[in-house]
Amino acid sequence: TTPVRLSDYRAPDYAIDTVSLDFSLAPTATQVTAQLAMRPNTPGAPLVLDGDEVKLIAISINEEYIPSSAYEATPQQLTIKAPPREPFTLEIVTEINPKANTKLMGLYLSNGNYCTQCEAEGFRRITYFLDRPDVLAVYTTRIEASKAAAPVLLSNGNRIDGGDIPGTTRHFAVWHDPFPKPSYLFAAVAGDLGLVEDSFTTMSGREVALHIYCEHGKEARCAYAMDALKRSMRWDETAFGREYDLDIFMIVAVSDFNMGAMENKGLNVFNDKYVLADPDIATDADYAGIETVIAHEYFHNWTGDRITCRDWFQLCLKEGLTVFRDQEFSSDERSRGVKRIADVRTLLARQFPEDAGPLAHPVRPEVYSEINNFYTATVYDKGAEVIRMLKAILGEDGFRAGMDLYFERHDGQAVTIEDFLASFADATGKDLSQFKLWYSQAGTPEVTAEGRYDARRQTYSLSLKQSIPPTPGQQTKSPMHIPVRFGLVGPNGADLAFTSATGGGVEDDVIHLTEAAQTIVFEGVSAPPVPSLLRGFSAPVKIATGLSQTDQLFLLRTDADAFNRWRASQQIAIQTLIAETAAVRSGAQSKLDPAFVDALAEVAEDDSLEPAFRAQILQLPGEADIAREIGHDVDPAAIAGARKRLMAMVASRIGKRLAELAERTGNVGDYSPDAASAGRRALANAALALTVGQAAPEAIGRVVARFESADNMTDRLAALSILASNGFEERIAALETFQDRYRDDPLGLDKWLMLEAVVPLETTLDRVKALTTHPAFSLTNPNRIRALIGGFAGSNQTQFNRPDGAGYDFFADFVLDLDKRNPQTAARLLVSFRSWKALEAGRRALAEKALRRIAASDSLSSDTRDIVTRTLA
Ligand code: HT7
Ligand code: ZN
After folding, report:
1. Is the domain 308-440 a CATH 1.10.390.10 member?
2. Which residues on adjacent β-strands are paired with residue 153?
3. Closest-lying ligand to the alpha carbon of 320?
4. Whose Cα sits closest to atom 2 in ligand 1?
5. What value does the mean pLDDT take over residues 638-649?
6. Which helix (H) or strand (E) holds 450?
7. 32, 127, 340, 727 - which has most CB atoms within 10 Å?
8. Probe ligand 1: pick from 262, 270, 303, 329, max atoms within 8 Å of CB?
9. Is residue 504 very low, low, confident or very high in pLDDT (cuts 50, 70, 90)?
């Protein structure tokens, strides 16, 4: 496939004002009649419509069939050579096969129900179309199907007609969406589904019907999603002044879905894992995930649907902004400080490695071969960080004024990052030209800080430097605008005042680092401070503060910024574990220092702190975190060995105290998913996880007892996960019990598959291979694949990276096989190799061999071809 470049963007030659679609649904031969009101922007230009695996049945212009010499049709394209120069109606009839659609793009069947996925380029798998986001049309959709097989018929907008088709067993419904939209937001659903109904009164007093559709029998599990939806709708009114605009808002939960969910106008389609919850099946993390995804898709109604992207290079315009909005929502609904830590954990785990490896790309990419591969952590999560920095730079009011202007100016349009930033620049009078580099320069900026206190002058000077490492296609970079939120922590733990800050760049508690190097001199500083920098993780950068372990322990105990307390604990742990990894590799004795472990217990037992925060402190860096920080010549076995040593020391030194803490906080009473109860469970389970490092029978026994007595999925899974991730013998019986309990529940079985895959033992590879033929597994369901194969490659560092390369070989075979059915899911899995270049030489060679074997296949999809090529480059 030829790469698409941002610099080649051209406005479309034709506009489509209205689209009238008529679906006659049948599993293997669905007919789609599309009537398009076409208007030439470039009269006389050939009309080139996109297609993908569609069969043309008939074509007419202004109700007259056109001769076959007037057009050329392939399954990928329909070209009308000389269309009318005036507006005209184009009617196209196509035939598609939903049952054979294993790519889950376009119209497909999930558990016998019809559903669609059109972002990014799925609509062209339904009919020939100008399938690009800058072609906005008003859609009317008629769906006709067997009444018995599909009593529910849904599409975007409001339902305007429906009924039985006399003399047949079929019925129909007609939906009209008055808001112009691009084809990627089209959706249709038909099937036999259960319904949960509610309603919402908007801020202007309009009543909106809320419908959630799911498999029959699962209705009770939709209550939390419905509640999250209503809270999201209210929050968008209060926080952004955005009201819902149709008479009905619908969510459909399906079990076969390539991603999390999709924001189709008025008809969101969800992976059922982000809708269905009850205490027996969902963990606290699942509840939080549901809240996030429900909010995210709902917020797209304004940031994505009402204002959309001009082209796919602008994807972060809707995704980064909408992630920022959902993060803010969850922060308001839960604990802001803890939510920030959780979001930064995700950023560090997903985006930092992407930015540091061969798949690095700017938040707004400038070239792509396969757009499906750009739904990345960089576009989503770093994209959200960019918005957060924009807010830090403009202030609360400036940010809101910019957002208001953006909505006012661009409602109903398909726009660019330039349009977005212009709204903020115009609303606030600020020059955002340097800030814009965040959208074009890939790579994680590296900041160093060095401070010096002058007791005689009572000054503290802080020298900051920034640099950005080279990334594919970008060797040199310019300095960025990095907002560094800070405090100068005095000896008693409180922030010190200062009388002035010279050297430029300080506004309130933010240093605006805009040069490659900047020195700020603070005057009137009464005592030597410990600088607390990048509070709240005010910018997505790596920072080397050069602080001693003593200073970091001081920040861990005292910093007024909860985020930086957590960050200090992680930094100390990482530094300790890096040193210990080197010791393991060289066969040296343990170098672990107990001071950190004592501080951990102290914070964990501090009842004046939120339990959820203490739980975060107790979650020590995982093997992948350590590998990321080491960055080169990575030996996963040595890392695992070092972590084991630390866990053993933790258990022997503070295990008893943590077991008591777990006992004291673990019994929360009847299960409720609220943030406070979840926080107490998280603390108890995190404490429990740190008691087993010596594999003492008594400690393991406590975990088994917790597994057996748990009355909710959170505690049950936490205990099982401790047994599995430590490879304890006791896991075998517990996994069996768990599997048995959830034998009829695919979402429960996903958790089981995942835990089987993360056991850090040599036998796991064979176990995973065997499970690919287990009846609970399915090669057609992305959730099952992500649980078992994604769990193995993404969360089992030692076994995926086995020194004999067998983990890579199995994985490569799996990806090659999956690629034939579901290229998108195959390509996403393959991203597990993104850090292969950082491995030690032996594993690196084996990983490269596996990647080259994939690349050598001549039947790869464009999705997998793109990932393997860039990963190897
Ligand atoms: N905007 C949605 C992205 C999405 C998607 C993209 C490609 C292929 C399948 C997909 N399903 C959903 C989801 C979101 O970010 O809200
Ligand atoms: Zn989104």
Report:
1. yes
2. 190
3. 2
4. 262
5. 98
6. strand 446-454
7. 127
8. 262
9. confident
* Alpha helices by DSSP H, 546-593: 549-558, 562-585
| d(C-alpha 381, C-alpha 375), whole Å | 10
* Among the four given CATH numbers 3.50.50.60, 1.10.1040.10, 3.90.640.10, 1.25.50.10, the one describing domain 545-694: 1.25.50.10
Q: Which ligand is nearest to the CA of 827?
A: 1
297 CB less than 6 Å from ligand 1?
Answer: yes
**What pLDDT digit, counting tens, does each position of 306-332 carry?**
999 999 999 999 999 999 999 999 999
Question: Could you tell me how far CA 711 lies from the centroid of its own chain?
Answer: 30
Cα of 672 from ligand 2 centre, angstroms: 28
Whose alpha carbon is nearest atom 3 of ligand 1?
262
Closest CA to 406 of 315, 320, 303: 303
446-539: same fold as 4-192? yes
Task: Of 413, 430, 418, 299, give the one whose Cα is nearest residue 364.
Answer: 418
Q: Which residue, judged by its Cα, is nearest atom 5 of ligand 1?
A: 119
Residues 871, 851: contact at Cβ < 8 Å?
A: yes
Which pLDDT score, from 0 to 100, does residue 837 have?
98
Mean pLDDT, the chain, as a whole number?
98
- Flag whether the pTM goes above 0.95: yes
Terminus-to-terminus CA distance in the chain, angstroms? 17
Q: What is the DSSP string of 219-239?
A: GGGGHHHHHHHHHHHHHHHHH
How far apart CA 420 and CA 403 sit, in angstroms, is: 9
Using alpha carbons only, what angle is made at residue 65 by residues 60 and 70, rounded to the nearest 5 degrees? Answer: 85
- For the cut 90, the answer to whether the pLDDT of residue 829 exceeds it is yes
Amino acid at 789: I
Distance CA 445, CA 540 (A): 8
- Determine whether domain 446-539 maps to CATH 1.10.730.10: no
Q: How far is it, in rounded angstroms, from Cα 735 to Cα 720?
A: 7
The full set of domain ranges for the chain reads 4-192, 308-440, 446-539, 545-694
Question: What amino acid occupies position 121?
Answer: E
Which region, left, alpha or beta, applies to residue 702 given φ > 0 means left and ψ of -120 to 50 means alpha?
A: alpha
| Torsion-angle region of 101 (φ positive above 0: left; ψ -120 to 50: alpha; else: beta) | beta
Ligand 1 centroid from CA 827, angstroms: 15
* Architecture of the 4-192 domain: Sandwich (2.60)
Percent of the chain that is helix, strand, coil (3-state, to 5) = 45, 20, 35
> Which of 103, 104, 119 most suits a substitution to test ligand 1, by most atoms within 8 Å of the C-beta?
119
Token pair of 85, please?
């120069």
Please determine, for residue 668, whether its predicted confidence score (pLDDT) is greater than 90.
Answer: no
User: What is the Å distance from ligand 1's center to 119 Cα?
Assistant: 6
The H or E element that residue 522 is part of is strand 517-523
